[in-house]
Design a protein that fits this description.
CATH class of the largest domain: Alpha Beta
Number of helices: 3
Strand order of the largest sheet: 2-1-8-3
Helix content: 10-25%
Number of strands: 8
Strand content: 35-45%
CATH topology of the largest domain: Chitinase A, domain 3
Length: 169
């Protein structure tokens, strides 16, 4: 009998995010994402709810308004500056830059545009303001171990050293 996704089940899945307006694939997660259902919020609550009761082999599509997840787009977080004021290592579209304000709060900005004279960074989440569809494929559903329940996902093991004891350095 197939196991279904419910609390304390270990789940592996892949997904992709498609822009509902353009049909463009925005993100593809090809390597399985593993988590314990109900043990953490690795995906949006709407997606976690839609996965309940599904089994390995099931495919689902979940429309999401990203404004609900990330808030409305804030144009004050989009900054364009002279390229001369930007260090060389940040002069590439797609580069992530973590900045800190006077109060010590940090925010990650993404370099979104660059030309010969200017560079633009955006502190909004890349999905902010978009209508998307998460297309998911469930690969594995099984009982989670006690360790996985505690960790909220798969517990990585170190190499088998054939019984040798290791000490922290």
């Amino acid at each position: 009998m197939k196991q279904i996704i419910a609390a304390n089940k270990f789940v592996e899945l892949t997904y992709r995010i498609v822009d509902r307006q353009t049909g463009d694939v925005l993100t593809t997660v090809e390597f399985p994402l593993g988590y314990v259902q109900g043990g953490n919020s690795v995906l949006a609550p709407q997606i976690m709810a839609e996965l309940e009761g599904k089994a390995a082999g099931d495919r689902i599509s979940v429309p999401i308004d990203c404004t609900d997840l990330y808030g409305p787009r804030d144009e004050s977080l989009v900054v364009t500056d002279s390229i001369e004021n930007v260090p060389e290592e940040y002069r590439e579209v797609g580069t992530r830059i973590t900045m800190e304000n006077d109060q010590g709060h940090t925010r990650t900005f993404l370099v979104t545009r660059m030309d010969d004279r200017t560079l633009t960074v955006d502190g909004n989440h890349p999905l902010c303001g978009r209508q998307v569809v998460f297309e998911l494929e469930v690969l594995t559903v099984r009982d989670a171990t006690d360790e996985e329940i505690l960790a909220g996902g798969q517990v990585e093991r170190g190499p088998d050293l054939g019984g040798l004891q290791t000490r922290p350095i």
